[in-house]
Amino acid sequence: MKEQKFRKLDVWNRAMDFIGEIYKVTSNFPSTEIYGLSAQLRRAAISISLNIAEGSGSGSDPEFNRFLNISLRSAYEVMCGIEVACKLDYCDKTIAEKLLNECDELSAMITGLKRKLIGSSHS
User: Fold this and answer.
1) Per-residue b/e over 84-110, b at no fewer than 16 CB within 10 Å?
2) Which band of pLDDT confidence, cut at 50, 70 and 90, is reported for residue 121?
3) Does this model's pTM top 0.90?
4) CB of 103 within 8 A of CB of 78?
């Protein structure tokens, strides 16, 4: 099987690890949230890596950048969801802070990749 280029991206690998962290945390949410906040947080976390992968196969830097924008918005969605979980006392504050920091780092990595793409398209 041919290795896809997204697998070589540090940001994609970090996003994949982040999915596992979100699944662990949301597995402790109340069962009433299985189709609510738990599902929404999981979808948003998965969307980060899915859009990085999809964009990397798009064939053009502007199109890849568009998918990175979606990925970045998903990261912000996760951050907000974590804040909501804290407000509802579904999540330990220390764990939430760790997740928020990781998501912030992912956002910075996505932004850095976007800058690199924009820079390479102007070269």
Assistant:
1) ebbeeebbeeebbeebeebbeebbebb
2) low
3) yes
4) yes
pLDDT, tens only, 56-72: 998 899 999 999 999 99
* Unique residue bearing structure tokens 């070269």: 123
In whole angstroms, give the CA distance from residue 101 to residue 123.
33
Q: Give the class (CATH, top level) of 5-118.
A: mainly alpha
Measured from the Cβ of residue 116, the count of other Cβ atoms closer than 10 Å reads: 12
29 Cβ neighbours under 8 A, 6+ residues apart: 37, 38, 85, 90, 91
For the chain, the structural domain boundaries read 5-118
Q: Choose among 11, 30, 3, 39: nearest CA to 116.
A: 11
